[in-house]
């Protein structure tokens, strides 16, 4: 049955979700490639330079062979931004069915690792789909009738941590927590730097965890927060992370972090919840916009953190 004009069809949502998921697994977005190339160009340690060269070579081969860029394809997830006046065939239930089907099909077709299992029985459905899997997060945008689908393949085990600070801990407390997190996972070989650091600052515990992951995965490298104080801290955190000297894959080098992004949320007056997420060397993300007329456009920048998404006042 044909869908009405201006309604985004379920079949199109499926096709775009499938393609975005596939692209995310295979191709490093342009901003990530540029950041790796910059790290390679400025690296002074021979071993780290060699490994960064291999990271770049791996990125090229993955595209040429149409294969996932890392054997561990993490946990595929979607971020969906919906225009306030967008109309979806079958509504959000149909959208979620399409996203889940796309994950199952991409897992089969390009051999994503079937990482999702039942947490107690370890039963593996073999398609990365199960209870609350894949994750789907939403945001909305005024004056828009389009649908943005961003696929991210993010590991789900290591590199992410949470700490409740007191206001008196200040910026030093945030820096200390970041260093502890980098050291804790880095020294045990449980992360693959260079990483993009995402920091969620404030809000509630669950909010800052979510923001840290979004900050790590959904902002392009080089992007800076509009708040000047937050922006300045982002620069400081990149420098701090790189002064640890862990370097690419922990071999010792100049670049441990490609970038650091901080997202803030207004929080309880008595505390400062902080979360850190790390987007690893397998920098995997793809975004597409589906217009109300059915046109599809892929791009590198998810444009997830819009002024509306970060809004401060009632409006
Ligand atoms: S941390 Fe990233 S690069 Fe390392 S194995 Fe996991 S997915 Fe691959």
Top keywords for this entry?
alpha/beta; 2 domains; five-stranded mixed beta sheet; 7 helices; 11 strands; 37% helix
What's the SSE blueprint?
Elements: E1 7-8, H1 10-26, H2 30-42, H3 46-65, E2 75-83, E3 87-88, H4 91-109, E4 135-141, E5 147-154, E6 161-165, H5 170-187, E7 195-202, H6 205-217, H7 228-243, E8 257-265, E9 272-279, E10 285-290, E11 296-299
Parallel strand pairs: 1-3, 2-4, 7-8
Antiparallel strand pairs: 2-5, 5-10, 6-9, 7-9, 10-11
Helix pairs in contact: 1-4, 2-3, 5-7
Residues 70, 72, 74, 155, 191-192, 280-282 line the site of iron/sulfur cluster.
Description:
The protein is of the alpha/beta class and about 325 residues long. The protein has 2 domains: about 5-25 and about 70-155 and about 285-300, Dihydrodipicolinate Reductase, domain 2 (2-Layer Sandwich), CATH 3.30.360; about 155-280, no CATH class. It contains 7 helices and 11 strands. The chain has helices spanning about 10-25, 30-40, 45-65, 90-110, 170-185, 205-215, 230-245; strands at about 5-10, 75-85, 85-90, 135-140, 145-155, 160-165, 195-200, 255-265, 270-280, 285-290, 295-300. The strands form 3 sheets. The chain has a 5-stranded mixed sheet. Strands 6-9-7-8 form a 4-stranded mixed sheet. It has a two-stranded parallel ribbon with strand order 1-3. The model has no long low-confidence stretch (mean pLDDT about 95). Bound molecules: iron/sulfur cluster. Iron/sulfur cluster binds near residues 72, 191, 192 and 280.
């Amino acid at each position: 049955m044909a869908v009405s004009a201006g309604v985004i069809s379920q079949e199109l949502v499926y096709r775009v979700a499938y393609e975005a998921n596939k692209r995310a697994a295979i191709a490093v977005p342009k901003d990530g490639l540029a950041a790796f190339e910059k790290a390679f160009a400025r690296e002074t340690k021979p071993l780290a330079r060699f490994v960064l060269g291999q990271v770049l070579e791996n990125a090229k081969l993955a595209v040429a062979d149409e294969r996932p860029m890392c054997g561990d394809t993490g946990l595929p997830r979607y971020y969906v931004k919906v225009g306030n006046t967008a109309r979806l065939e079958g509504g959000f239930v149909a959208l979620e069915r399409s996203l889940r089907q796309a994950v199952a099909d991409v897992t089969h077709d390009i051999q994503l690792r079937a990482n999702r299992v039942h947490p107690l029985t370890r039963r593996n459905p073999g398609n990365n789909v199960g209870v609350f899997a894949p994750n789907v997060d939403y945001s909305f945008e005024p004056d828009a009738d389009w649908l943005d689908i961003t696929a991210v393949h993010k590991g789900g085990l290591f590199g992410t941590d949470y700490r409740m600070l007191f206001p008196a801990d200040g910026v030093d407390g945030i820096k200390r927590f970041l260093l502890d997190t980098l050291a804790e996972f880095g020294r045990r070989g449980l992360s693959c730097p260079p990483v993009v650091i995402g920091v969620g600052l404030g809000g509630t515990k669950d909010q800052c965890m979510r923001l840290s992951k979004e900050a790590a995965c959904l902002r392009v490298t080089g992007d800076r927060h509009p708040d000047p104080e937050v922006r300045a801290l982002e620069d400081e955190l990149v420098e701090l992370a790189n002064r640890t000297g862990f370097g690419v894959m922990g071999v010792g080098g100049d670049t441990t972090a490609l970038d650091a992004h901080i997202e803030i949320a207004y929080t309880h007056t008595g505390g400062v919840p902080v979360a850190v997420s790390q987007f690893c060397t397998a920098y995997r993300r793809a975004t597409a916009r589906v217009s109300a007329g059915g046109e599809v456009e892929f791009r590198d920048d998810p444009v997830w953190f819009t002024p509306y998404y970060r809004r401060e006042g009632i409006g």
